[in-house]
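Thought: the user asked what Permease looks like in 3D. I have the sequence; next I should run the structure tool and report back without guessing.
Action: structure_tool
Action Input:
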Amino acid sequence: MTPLVTDSSINGVALAVLVVLFLLVAVAGFMAARFKRADSLDSLDEWGLGGRKFGTWITWFLLGGDLYTAYTFVAVPAAMFATGAVAGFFAVPYTIVLYPIIFVFMARLWSVSHRHGYVTTADFVRGRYDDRGLSLAVAVTGFVATMPYIALQLVGIQAVLEVAGIGGGDNWFAKDAPLFVAFAVLAAYTYTSGLRAPAVIAFVKDILIYLVIIVAVIYLPSQVGGWHEIFGAAKEKMDSVNQATGKPTGAFLPGEGQGWAYATLGLGSALALFMYPHSVTASLSSSSRNTIRRNAAILPAYSFVLGLLALLGWVAIAAKTDVTGLDGNPNPQLVVPQLFEDFFPDWFAGVAFAAIAIGALVPAAIMSIAAANTFSRNIYKEWLNKKATPKQEAQVSKVVSLLVKAFALVFVLTLDKANAINFQLLGGIWILQIFPAVVFSLYTRWFHRWALLAGWAVGMVYGTVKAYQVINPATGKHFGGSLAEIPGLGDMGYIAMTAFALNLVVTVVLSLVLNAAKVGNGRDRTRPGDYYADADDPRVAADLSDDPADPTRPDPV
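Observation:
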């Protein structure tokens, strides 16, 4: 079977199906402004959080669409195809570890945010410590870490269109045109409908994804000799020598010296995921704290689908899938769309392409909204215009949501796309450094605000420098990986976890010193009962002081 991706022809049927479904979803995005309609979208609560009205099933689809992104559908199978289990399959156990973690702390964050009208984690940190500097650090980190994650979604759309026969070649404009198309579509419907757009589109995305993956997992193994043949071909490829490095191509299973890499990638990614602004935004849009916990219990259903998706990377090895792009260079990100191109009728390949493209649009929309909310609330209003009205906040957020996508395009155009999973892992290195300031502060104020800021700075600098020093041996580009030697152990590990460990050491030591010296830790605007408040809970409105100077008085909702 000759893959069409190396041909100059366009798969007209698949492309037509993709375009039709894509346009239907875009129309749904524009019409979503009517979904759970408010009198006006001129506030962050309405535009950026959907009015905080979403119930269990809407939140489930929204979080699923938010968390299971082009990283899931494109980058994880591509990593399995290119370098094996350590680089790709860690994503499965990390999602399993993730949900008990969010079950414990996310309900507390929802409650205190509901109580005080917080829109972002930086809002919470500002209220907990009354510290503009620490709040700014959390906000900037979330904003910057989201850029490579959005970029990954655009890479997924580009891969689909390239397999369909467009968007490749040596001409830079033709090659990157799909990214600009994706930018235009995202910009338009997120600007007009806010978070309601991805909430509506997520239903379509999940139905398509489940359909496509179930069909693929049942049908494809029988076409390449069964799972025995698939695992055998994968092991043979991973054991072969990479000519560029002189080492094995990858790891069929984590071997000697790779345990730390696998474990730290899994744990670090689990700790980092719900620190991202988009994860918090999707959670805070829910109507109650119990909605959060119910979702933590049922979201693992997606982990099963993720495991099946990851294995498609090895199915492609057995199928001898050609991932040569239209520019003549190998591109592992093409592996899943190319599988569907090679083995399914054109119309079904088009459905699969649409599922992947829409699977990128949903999270990209939520990410751009979340990053924009962070900028509007914690940078614009906090530092540039303290008297900004809710309408002005919302307008700034809408404009910044456009700029965020533009910054994401810069990541795509300048960083190495050969191993796109590093886009997500690079963001993880940064975002994990706000974990102490956010999660620990939900339970205690023992950690000093200045110590949290110093620990954050050490983790950010170390993580960024180490990630920059990782060079892809095949391309010679920086930021070519997310693993580096763990000091004192000698084994390779996820840079984010090493930076996080340094962050914790600095935070704990300085907290001991500053607390012993009785250095002030700022004013806490929250009370213990705030962390248990629920929708319509009388504690939200009862017994509030009218004295603006009262440190226990909540911020106005």
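Thought: the tool returned a structure. Summarizing for the user.
Final Answer: Structure for Permease predicted. Residues 346-384 form the longest helix (39 residues). Residues 1-8, 541-557 have pLDDT under 50 and may be disordered.
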